């Protein structure tokens, strides 16, 4: 149920979309998207995967650059829990007490 992920070497993000000027030509830049629920399940899954990788990379960078302790939980539509933790917080997602606490929070009514 719990899956701990370390960011890829490049963080899993595709930086090819950034604005670049090559000679006199300008490549297409990042497009602004509306922040609204994605109805298409396939597109939603792809977006989830890419954004999850991005936020995992940001959590890693935050802990590395500032020396802070970070615990990130991301729960998918299907209920899978993905985590990023620094060493001191690792027991919260690996020991039964921590897992039970997380599960209780996820099962709590809104």
Automatic annotation (TrEMBL):
<dbReference type="InterPro" id="IPR036879">
    <property type="entry name" value="TF_MADSbox_sf"/>
</dbReference>
<dbReference type="Pfam" id="PF00319">
    <property type="entry name" value="SRF-TF"/>
</dbReference>
<dbReference type="GO" id="GO:0045944">
    <property type="term" value="P:positive regulation of transcription by RNA polymerase II"/>
</dbReference>
<keyword id="KW-0804">Transcription</keyword>
<dbReference type="InterPro" id="IPR050142">
    <property type="entry name" value="MADS-box/MEF2_TF"/>
</dbReference>
<dbReference type="GO" id="GO:0000981">
    <property type="term" value="F:DNA-binding transcription factor activity, RNA polymerase II-specific"/>
</dbReference>
<feature type="region of interest" description="Disordered">
    <location>
        <begin position="1"/>
        <end position="28"/>
    </location>
</feature>
<dbReference type="GO" id="GO:0000987">
    <property type="term" value="F:cis-regulatory region sequence-specific DNA binding"/>
</dbReference>
<keyword id="KW-0539">Nucleus</keyword>
<dbReference type="InterPro" id="IPR002100">
    <property type="entry name" value="TF_MADSbox"/>
</dbReference>
<protein>
    <submittedName>
        <fullName>SRF-TF-domain-containing protein</fullName>
    </submittedName>
</protein>
<feature type="domain" description="MADS-box">
    <location>
        <begin position="28"/>
        <end position="88"/>
    </location>
</feature>
<keyword id="KW-0805">Transcription regulation</keyword>
<dbReference type="GO" id="GO:0046983">
    <property type="term" value="F:protein dimerization activity"/>
</dbReference>
<feature type="compositionally biased region" description="Acidic residues">
    <location>
        <begin position="7"/>
        <end position="20"/>
    </location>
</feature>
<dbReference type="InterPro" id="IPR033897">
    <property type="entry name" value="SRF-like_MADS-box"/>
</dbReference>
<dbReference type="GO" id="GO:0005634">
    <property type="term" value="C:nucleus"/>
</dbReference>
<keyword id="KW-0238">DNA-binding</keyword>
């Amino acid at each position: 149920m719990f899956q701990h992920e370390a960011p890829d070497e490049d963080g899993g993000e595709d930086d090819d979309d950034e604005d670049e000027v090559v000679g006199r030509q300008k490549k297409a830049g990042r497009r602004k998207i509306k922040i609204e629920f994605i109805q298409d399940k396939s597109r939603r899954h792809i977006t989830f995967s890419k954004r999850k990788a991005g936020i995992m990379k940001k959590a890693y960078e935050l802990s590395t650059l500032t020396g802070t302790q970070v615990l990130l939980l991301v729960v998918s539509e299907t209920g899978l829990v993905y985590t990023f933790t620094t060493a001191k917080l690792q027991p919260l997602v690996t020991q039964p007490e921590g897992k039970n606490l997380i599960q209780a929070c996820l099962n709590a009514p809104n």
